[in-house]
Automatic annotation (TrEMBL):
GO MF terms held by the record: alanine racemase activity; pyridoxal phosphate binding
SUPFAM superfamilies cross-referenced by the UniProt entry: Alanine racemase C-terminal domain-like
Provenance organism: Microbacterium testaceum
Phylogenetic lineage: Bacteria, Bacillati, Actinomycetota, Actinomycetes, Micrococcales
GO BP, one annotated term: peptidoglycan biosynthetic process
Protein name in the entry: Alanine racemase
Co-factor requirement: pyridoxal 5'-phosphate
SMART domains attached to this UniProt entry: Ala_racemase_C
Length: 211
């Protein structure tokens, strides 16, 4: 079951990626986060939704002023579970011949004949442009690289010979224990901190709660 937080209108005709936040992960992490002194309700709760975070903590009888925020939200470098995952959808695929380029400026040209997928999620939703040609996404449990420059609402992914169905879920980052790309890949590629990334994604993407 899922519930929906108040969110901005979806971009790209209602098919914008969704920043899912896990209530189970937040509850699990809360006990591990005790003893910190961060303002865990700052910046719309670090992109996770301040009202939602406050309500979950209150339901557990916890003081939001005495917690470690990176642990609470499961950011890289902690022992906690990631609370946020960013997921889009495959809009379709097309063949890309050797030497052909994709996206603005053709920063990527295919080294061989391949297939690329257009997926929802671009810099308007926090998929920053530095991620192009640098990180992978997960589709049906397999990793595929983002190629070319990230556009405003979409990215291009090299899926090789893999058959990708229209509407297939695309995981940009999530829980590495579930085989998802780690947020750490984004920090390495962009130079941003994990807290900066989740705050930006939470503000820009549609946000929903998964129980």
């Amino acid at each position: 079951m899922t519930s929906t937080l108040p969110a901005r209108a979806s971009a790209a005709g209602g098919v914008a990626p969704i920043a899912w936040v896990s209530e189970a992960a937040l509850r699990h992490n809360a006990a591990l986060a005790v003893g910190g002194d961060d303002d865990v309700l700052a910046a719309d709760a670090w992109g996770h939704g301040a009202e939602w975070v406050a309500s979950v903590l209150a339901g557990q009888g916890m003081d939001a002023t005495a917690l470690d925020a990176p642990t609470l939200f499961g950011l890289p470098g902690t022992r906690a579970r990631p609370v946020m995952s960013l997921r889009g959808r495959a809009l379709g695929t097309k063949p890309l011949l050797r030497g052909e380029g994709v996206s603005y400026g053709y920063t990527h040209r295919a080294p061989r004949d391949t297939t690329v997928a257009l997926v929802t999620g671009g810099y308007a939703q926090g998929v920053v442009r530095a991620l192009g040609n640098a990180v992978t996404v997960s589709i049906d449990g397999r990793r595929h690289r983002i190629v070319g420059r990230v556009a405003m609402d979409v990215s291009v992914v090299d899926v090789g010979e893999t058959s990708i169905a229209r509407g297939a879920e695309v995981v940009f980052f999530g829980d590495p224990a579930a085989g998802h790309p780690s947020l750490e890949e984004w920090t390495d590629a962009t130079g941003w901190t994990a807290s900066e990334i989740v705050a930006a994604v939470g503000v820009r993407a549609e946000r929903r709660v998964a129980e």
